[in-house]
Amino acid sequence: MVTLKVAVDAPQHTGLSAPLDYLSERTLPPGTLINVPFGKRNSPGVVWDGVTAPAGDLALRPIAEVLDALPALSTTWRALVDFAAAYYQRSTGEIALAVLPPELRKLDNTRLAQRIKKLHKALAAVPGSRIDAAAATRPVQTREQADALSRIAEMSAQPMPSPLLLHGVTGSGKTEVYLGAAERTLAADRQALVLVPEINLTPQLEARFAERFAGRHIVSLHSALTPAQRLRNWLAAHLGLADLVLGTRLAIFASMPRLGLIVVDEEHDPSYKQQDGARYSARDLAVYRARLEGAVVVLGSATPSLESWQRANEGRYQRLALPARIGGGSLPRVRLVDMNQQPKSRGESAALSSPLIDAIQQRIARGEQSLVFLNRRGYAPVLHCGDCGWKSGCPNCSAWRVFHKLDRTLRCHHCGVTERVPRACPDCGNLDIAPIGRGTERLEEQLGQLLRTPDDRPARIARIDADSTRLKGALQAQLGAVHAGEVDVLVGTQMVTKGHDFRRITLVAAVNPDGALFSSDFRAPERLFSLLMQAGGRAGRDAQHAASSEMWVQTWHPQHALYDALRRHDYEAFAQSQLKEREMAGLPPYSHLAILRADARTPEAARAFLQAASALASSLPGAEHVVIYAPVPLGIARVANVERMQMLVESASRGALQRFLARWLPALHAMRRERSDQGAHERILRWAVDVDPLVI
Question: What CATH number has the domain spanning 2-100?
Answer without folding.
Answer: 3.40.1440.60
